[in-house]
């Protein structure tokens, strides 16, 4: 992935909301564990990340914890990104490829810039199958696909575009 010029971002190691959003230290510990693993495998230390559930108002976080995590991560030089288009592949059962393509194209309609939320694991084969048709359709509409870096202005929940 890195050799092809793509960005690698960090999510979390456990994805256990109750654990990672217990306090700032818990989040940082989980984050550093996966960041170190990614760095060892790729040779690059990621500087961008996405919060599980998004950057705002996670119901598992105690009041003020998520804000404190955002502030600490920013202070440490990490940039975080949310999304403004949801594929719909976050369900407990696989969603068919055509539905994912429709969801993404519908969500992107009328937007100048989009960050699409997709997931990957063994169950979500249809997500991988949707990538080609989505790239083709959005390219036809004039979208360009670029590497996400810390120089790209982030999309963040709760902030005006």
Descriptive terms for the model:
5% strand, 161 residues, mainly alpha, two-stranded parallel sheet, globular, 4 strands
Can you describe what's shown?
By secondary structure, the protein is mainly alpha-helical. The chain contains five helices and four strands, in the order H-H-E-H-E-E-H-E-H. It has helices at residues 17-20, 24-42, 65-75, 97-108, 125-140, and strands spanning 48-49, 79-80, 85-86, 116-117. The strands form two sheets. It has a two-stranded parallel sheet. A two-stranded parallel sheet has the order 3-4. Helix 3 links the parallel strand 1 (48-49) and strand 2 (79-80).
| Strand content range | under 5%
In round numbers, the mean pLDDT is 90
State the separation between the terminal residues, measured CA to CA: 29 Å
| Separate helix tally | 5
Would you report the number of β strands? 4
Largest sheet: 2 strands, parallel
Q: Poorly predicted ranges (pLDDT <50, ≥5 residues)?
A: none
Shape: globular
Oligomer: single chain
As a percent range, the share of helical residues equals 25-40%
The radius of gyration computed from the alpha-carbon positions, rounded to a whole number of angstroms, is 16 Å
The main sheet orders its strands as 1-2
Can I get a quick summary?
The chain is mostly helical and 161 residues long.
Secondary structure layout plus pairing:
Elements: H1 17-20, H2 24-42, E1 48-49, H3 65-75, E2 79-80, E3 85-86, H4 97-108, E4 116-117, H5 125-140
Helix pairs in contact: 4-5
